[in-house]
Amino acid sequence: MSAQKLEVGARKIAWPSVITVISAAILIGAEVFGAAFAGGWALAILFGLEDTGAHILQVILFGIGVLIMVAFVRGAQRVEPFTRKV
């Protein structure tokens, strides 16, 4: 027997797929979180809220942005799997 045995169902990280998804997540994340920050600020001005109201809106929109990013990475992982069978 050889010294190196492969386990049944062994998997290897597909680095090109991981790098592609991370790069897209950085680009889309910058847009999503920038929009959350600017949107909270703009809505606060529109509704005549003080700084505290603006920060609360920004936190709410930031949380929605986190949910969007999680959904994006999960969907991208289905299209570009992070692991492949050996």
Sum this structure up briefly:
By secondary structure, the chain is mainly alpha-helical. It has helices spanning 15-46, 51-79, and strands at 11-13, 83-85.
Overview of the structural elements:
The mean pLDDT is 91. This protein has a two-stranded antiparallel ribbon. It starts with 10 loop residues before the first strand and ends with a strand. The protein has a domain at 29-85. It has 86 residues and is mostly helical. It is rod-shaped and about 65 Å long. It has two helices and two strands. Helix 1 (15-46) packs antiparallel against helix 2 (51-79).
Q: Report the span from N to C terminus.
A: 19 Å
Strand order, sheet with most strands: 1-2
What spatial form do the alpha-carbon principal axes imply? Answer: rod-shaped
| Parts with pLDDT < 50 across at least 5 consecutive residues | none
Task: Tell me the helix content.
Answer: over 70%
Number of helices: 2
Instruction: Give the total of beta strands.
Output: 2
H/E element string? EHHE
Strand content: 5-15%
Kindly provide the radius of gyration, computed on alpha-carbon positions and rounded to a whole number of angstroms: 20 Å
Structural class: mainly alpha
Q: Main β-sheet: number of strands, strand sense, barrel status?
A: 2 strands, antiparallel
Overall pLDDT, averaged? 91
